[in-house]
Amino acid sequence: MATGSQESLTDRVYVELVRSLYQNVAPAVVMGAAFLFDFWLFYRAAPSPALMATGVAALVASAARIVVTVAGRERALTAMLTRDEARTIEGTFALPYLGFALMLGLFGLFAFRAPLPQVHMVTICLLVAYCAGVATGCGLRPRIALPSMALAVAPAMAAAILRADAAYVGLAGITLAFLVAGMRSVLVRCAFDTAATGQRLASISLARRDVLTTLPNRLALNEYFTENARLVSRHGLIAVHYLDLDGFKPVNDRFGHPVGDQVLQAVAERLRGAVRHGDLVARMGGDEFVVIQFGLGHASEAELLARRISATIEKPFVIADAVIAISTSIGTVVSQGMERTLDDLLREADDRLYQAKRARGPESALPLSA
User: Fold this and answer.
1) Superkingdom, according to UniProt (predicted)?
2) Are strands 367-369 and 280-285 parallel, antiparallel or unpaired?
3) What confidence score (pLDDT) does residue 253 get?
4) Fewer Cβ close by (within 10 Å): the C or N end of the chain?
5) Are 239 and 225 contacting, i.e. CB atoms less than 8 angstroms apart?
């Protein structure tokens, strides 16, 4: 039976994997457009009420996928989620996703039953591309990925086999073999990333630690930056977030340094759970922390993480029978590849941190007694 800390780590890993579902909406847009083209090609050649109903249902499900991802993206990527909340947003994502897969499978069945080789060609390309997109976009959640791949491909391949033509039987056999291999790859990737995420959240991937929080210290931060920045293309974006805690000094004054130390440990735990796989959280000393993001696709991803961190820290801490409310100020710098050194980025992020603190005015967050 797992201990409480193990259960907590398991929950945090699960939340992190669910967040991955909302990272990118582009595959759903591209797939919707590709399906629309294939549907138009097929319907123009062989119109029927059943085909029209299937096509419309698939397009509705595709639109719902896009709406759900766009509407839920900010909360999924910025909010501090419990396991139950993560399960809810995973279910919300899965419904239209599986619905589209079902309609795509039915569409493929109709396509391969029709005597239209040009439609067959476009449809098999569509199905293979869909499976590749599923493996990339939601491969960390096999309970969604595997049924989606099977629902989309199996009906069409069954229809291809029933044509009793050697070429079509061969096509179905090859496609199904790739489907099985793709499913296995999803499972292997999920197992690997789950283990890696667990290691990161437990802060065992780096040896040099801050004694109190077990976060990497400044020396480890420099080593990690040097090592990983080489792996980022010169056009890749790197974000540095420098933060300190607002309202922390009154915690030490009112409750004493032992409670203050527990608050810092709790903050470190929350920061571990807020960042992505591959990002780094380090303690600089006192109540100052740094988060580094590598491989950003757009500068807005840095803003999303800063907002997630703020929401994470502002949730009250219950320590030593007291409810303690603090907040954080964050200075963020986004750099293009390796154009600047870590020291330069830290200095600018620190300057922006204090600009943010001056803009907020005197610290107003005070510790509250339970």
Assistant:
1) Bacteria
2) unpaired
3) 87
4) N
5) no
Residue with tokens 């939340």: 15
How much is the pLDDT for 152? 96
Taking the C-alpha atoms of residue 18 and residue 139, their distance in angstroms, rounded to an integer, is: 11
Strand partners, 280: 292
**Residue (of 19, 68, 24) closest to 201 by Cα position:** 19
For residue 364, count CB atoms less than 10 angstroms from its CB and return exposed for 0-12, middle for 13-18, buried for 19 or more: exposed
User: Apex CA 14: angle with CA 9 and CA 16, to 5°?
Assistant: 95
Q: Which CATH number fits domain 218-369: 3.30.70.270, 3.40.50.300, 3.30.70.2390, 3.20.20.70?
A: 3.30.70.270
Q: Which residues of 154-187 are buried (b: 16+ CB within 10 A; e: fewer)?
A: bbbbbbbbebeeeebeebbeebbeebeebbeebe
Which DSSP category does 338 fall into?
Answer: T
Positions in the chain short of pLDDT 50:
1-7, 204-206, 233, 364-367
* Cα separation, 144 vs 29, whole angstroms: 18
47: left (phi over 0), alpha (psi -120 to 50) or beta: beta
pLDDT of residue 198: 76
Beta bridge partners of 369: 322
Residues 6 or more apart in contact with residue 208 via CB below 8 angstroms: 216, 217, 219, 220, 223
Q: Which are the contacts of 264, defined by CB distance < 8 A and separation ≥ 6?
A: 212, 213, 283, 287
State how far the Cα of 203 lies from the Cα of 220, in Å rounded to an integer: 12
Full-prediction pTM beyond 0.90?
no
Domain limits, the chain: 4-200, 218-369
- Considering only CA atoms, which of 326, 313, 235 is closest in space to residue 275? 313
Distance CA 370, CA 352 (A): 34
